[in-house]
Amino acid sequence: MNLEIELSTNYNSVIDHVRNTRNVVQASGQSLIIIQNGKIVTEHYEGHHSNIRNAKSISMDSLFHIASVRKSYTGFCVAWAIYNGHINSIDDPVLKYLPELNEETLKGITLRHFLTHTHGLRTNPDGNLFNYFHAGERWDYRDENIRMLAEIIRRTTGKTVAKIASEEIFVPLGFKKAGWYTEPSDDMVLTIFEPDGNTSFETRNSADGDRPNMFSTARELAYWGYLHLNNGKIGDEQIVNSEILKMATTMQSPKLLGEESPKNGFLWQVQMDPTKNSEIGLNVPKGSFQILGICNQTLLVMPEFNLVAVRLLNRLGNPPGFNYLEEVKSFGDCVTEASTKLLVKI
Predict the structure, then answer these.
(1) Domain 4-345, what fold?
(2) How far apart are CA 231 and CA 234, in angstroms?
């Protein structure tokens, strides 16, 4: 797919915000794309693929490691499996699909808990799961749930996360670059661990979608967000049933979850009434949804402004005193402020 490009200066403040974050965390490159009202209104690339001398410049072909942003595809696959009858309900117990797991540890944990980061599982130094808290009583962002969800998808559908994503999303939308990579590519932006130290391509041995080795260009990631914003429709064609995307991006967190906890759809964080520990800015409109990666990668969808914003950076780790949570919130608030000013001007 290719949307019309009509660049404007309305979101220059957001470009400045991303640049400031990049300078503070000492990333080597940045990408920013904003889609509004069906057009690309901001598309900005700056910096290089690494701090190595003569590294490639960031461009529209640059592949960023998107880390946990990939979980939006995992959530989609669960919703797709439910819609197509492979999974009965997100309130099914995990043990129904993974009966070989420890019954005492997994007892009472459902797919809903996995999808909303409320499962309470952690891993001890010996590599064994244990219950850090009872499922549903708290929110705790962990990765123990993601590989298990990927395995549940494989067992129930007969397809991997990557295969479903390819068949249902990548091919219909004409994506050429997004995917799970097992080998380095010349277009990859390296993940920077220290500004003057180690870098990595962050690839893994598996291309099944069960590991954190997904890369995407900023534009293809923005188009993924746009598919959600547009309820699964591109032009006159319904690419994905709107009910699948609605399921994934509306609040699914347990009802008894504390008021201060973030609220989730299928791994997306959803803006309800703003909460203290939410990763979405306080001023971001209700009904927006967002998913993040550890290197400050952000995919934010704001239906109230008919807008998708994607920013990609490549620094893993934060300098002393840097408040990741507040910075993420400030990005969403910056986009909101610029959008509000634009509405007033119009």
Answers:
(1) Beta-lactamase (3.40.710)
(2) 9
Instruction: In whole angstroms, give the CA distance from residue 62 to residue 283.
Output: 31
Q: How far is CA 4 from CA 36, 143, 218, 326, in A?
A: 11, 37, 16, 33
What residue type is assigned to position 21 of the chain? T
Residue 54 confidence (pLDDT): 93
Cβ-based burial of 103 (10 A; exposed 0-12, middle 13-18, buried ≥19): exposed
Tell me how far CA of residue 249 lies from CA of 75, 225, 289, 309, 324, in angstroms.
9, 11, 7, 16, 23
| Phi, psi angle pair for 107, to nearest 5° | -60, 130
What would the two tokens of residue 193 be? 């661990």
Whole-number CA gyration radius for the chain: 19
Amino acid identity of residue 17, one-letter, is H
With a cut of 50, which residues of the chain have pLDDT below it?
A: none
pLDDT 10s digits, 267-314: 999 998 877 789 999 999 999 999 999 999 999 999 999 999 999 999
- 234 Cβ neighbours under 8 A, 6+ residues apart: 1, 173, 226, 227
